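On clarity, I found the account of how folds are encoded harder to follow than it need be. Since the whole study asks how a given chain folds, the encoding of that fold should be made plain. For the editor and my fellow referees, an illustration may be useful. An entry of this sort, consisting of the sequence and the corresponding backbone structure tokens, reads as follows:

:::
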Amino acid sequence: MLDRSATANQLVDMLGSWHHGGPSYRALADRIRLLVLDGRLPPSTRLPSEREFARALGASRTTVAAAYGVLRESGFLASRRGAASRIQVPPGAGAPGTTHRTNGGLGPGGGAIMPAADPDDEALDLCAAALPAPPGMAAAVEAATYALPTYLRGHGYTPLGVPNLRELLAHRYTERGLPTTPDQILVTGGSLQSFALILRAFVSPGDRVLVEHPTYPNVLEAIRQVPARAVPVPLRPDGWDVAMFEATLRQSAPRLAYLVPDFHNPTGLLMSASTRERVAATAARTRTLTVADETLVDLALDVEPDSMPHPLAAYDRHDRVLLVGSTSKCYWGGLGVGWLRAPASLVPTLLGVRAVTDLGTSILSQLTAAELMVRHGPILTERRSMVRSRRAALAEALAAHLPRWRFELPPGGLSLWCELDAPVSSTLAVLAGQQGVRLAEGPRFGTDGAFERFLRLPYALPETDLAEAVVRLADVSATLAARPDQRRGRPRGGRPHRPAADLTPVVT
């Protein structure tokens, strides 16, 4: 069992305004239950003692004891005589009528997200947050083809990557404030392959891997297949809970940490420079190898690219931070090119692990990626403009057709993280699929059944497709709301955690 706890003050801060009328103990239990379902209080977290919590909350111990009792009766709290009370998620804790699959702790719908297998599938795909190829792709392929004959005399394997691409990547990191040499770059088949190499090189079965909560489902699946244990650290609505991050590193001693500091997937949050400094210092102090996924770093929509924080590794003084990136989001997923930036001393270890899966990425794809990076200025300007337009179209459609869904416009990235008006994400995904809209339900992005009240909605499709998808989702949502078994998110005997009048889109 993980040794992780929430202090009384931390719990009070998470609760916010929790008493909306009715019995105090019931309102308190309902609010804690929602923190569990929303992933803010991960399973196995120890709650403070009744006396300590009551003092910090400014409530009577009787109120806290009764609230804990309600949570125990409903299966959200486990207690043993002489031991602390710990959070757990009972089966069926999400939407009525949904069941929780046990899939390596991923909860309902857990598992990797896969793009549609049939390119002619007419469904509106809101699973994949990926763009079509940019206008300059054909020209880049043509230029790469002219450069290819130089490599035809050899065996064609490039375990480290072609020199030109590695030099370009090293130069780009240096420009962003992280001095880098080509011997620190390993070109891979994508950011997921980069992360898989790191897992195989440094994580053993049974080890713990710290992840943000929510996080990218395919990373959770990669961790499960080691098999290792994902240790979730909840994200606050406004960003990273550094105190909780530091406490989890101390208490759980994970072997590895995986973070997405740049336009986090799925929330779109951007980690500040001061937070990066604290995170890097804590990783160094606890000797935790940390992976920062920068796949979305170039899709800054409301932030000037030149004012972006330096890469997380720039704040690292002890070679504990590795960076992974890819061409899949800013250029095209069909290239199949990613990379890993690591301390030079770790590259031979990673190469040794790679040798049992592949001996290098396609040379033609690497040369094409290099051509795109040489021309990155106008390409990225066009991409950002297109994505801003699609983001605005999705936000406008949601405000018009699903006004009770809450979201904030992220400063970059490719998706909205929407809070629904009831814990029906898994059911909604099933019904939407029947109406030709593919969705990745919220619990895929968490562990143990969290995020039934959330849904990731990418804005990668054309504006007209996004508008049509929202219209269909509104129809499905209305059908679901009319079902007699839907309680619109109310815990039994409780109240919604915010007034219905406040359930409007937050568009900033």
